[in-house]
Amino acid sequence: MELSREILFFFSGLGAFNGVLLSLYFLIFKKPAYHFNKYLGGLLLVMSIRVGKSVFFYFNEELASVYLQIGLSACFLIGPFLYCYVAATQSAVGESERKRILNLLVWIPVILIINFSYPWSQYLPYWRDYFIPAIYLQWFCYLLAGAWTLRKLVLRLLFEREIPKRSDILVISILVSNSIIWFAYAAFPFVSYIVGALSFSFMLYILILVLFFGKDLDAVKEKYSDKKIEVEEADSMTVELENIMRQEKLYKDPNLTIADVAKKMNISPHKLSQLINDNIGGNYSAYINKHRIEEAKAIIASNDQYTLEAIGYECGFNSKSTFYWFSSGKLFFVSGRGSSFKFLKSRVKCR
User: Which of 22, 148, 164, 209 has its CA 20 to 30 A from that of 268?
Assistant: First the structure.
């Protein structure tokens, strides 16, 4: 029993210690010194402080109250640092940077006021009944804001079915892992208090794996990013691609991937992606769905017996919601299942 406690302490404590080291790497040594690296370093630092408090308190319930207060106060900055990191990875350089920094700084006076006005040792009921629930509610709101910020990235990865960049995997992994850690702490006492610390250690090791052993993901992208397809070759490939789409109607397959199309053309998926991005315009998902929308127009113009859902499936969309998502503004505006086909036909003819 004693041995299992020692092992538990080792793995949970090691995560907090490594988290501090990794945070210093991002805050001080990581080059180039992008803002999102600083935010990630800050996130890891406050998480390490919070988790370190949990580890020591779990194995020593007589821990001085000042350490408990410092650990919980660090929680005030977990959500803001997480959101700033996610937002910075999804925006252009310098875009809204002042707002993100202000979003962090505004919590500093809040932390100081609470800590000096309501010390843990004298106001334990206030912390238990008010401050701790407020901390986890604030953290949860920032998690939702981060998830909303990543919605476009997630949809793009789901629909394009291309190899994601290492940075994409990293930011999604951090958001998901942070959500798990939040749940582990918020669910106490329904789950063991140490679960949050172990979850952080798990997140940290995933982060290290992605950072230092996932470089080949970016290398595959970079290998083709600098190679431009010659104009004559691009024109020839574009004609071939259009012929395949018109004759074989590959887009009707809802599970069609860029690798499937590239195989038909006897080229690599990366070269096909390069062709679409640089010479045709848009991305693979937009290109395929453009053909699906054109097919939907033809069906609506010639047949009024189909339901909207049936048209979507016939054209290759794998769900009604996906069909509505891509067709909105391109084919017609769907206001409900009972939309008039006469109205839809008139819209198609006008276009």
Answer: 209
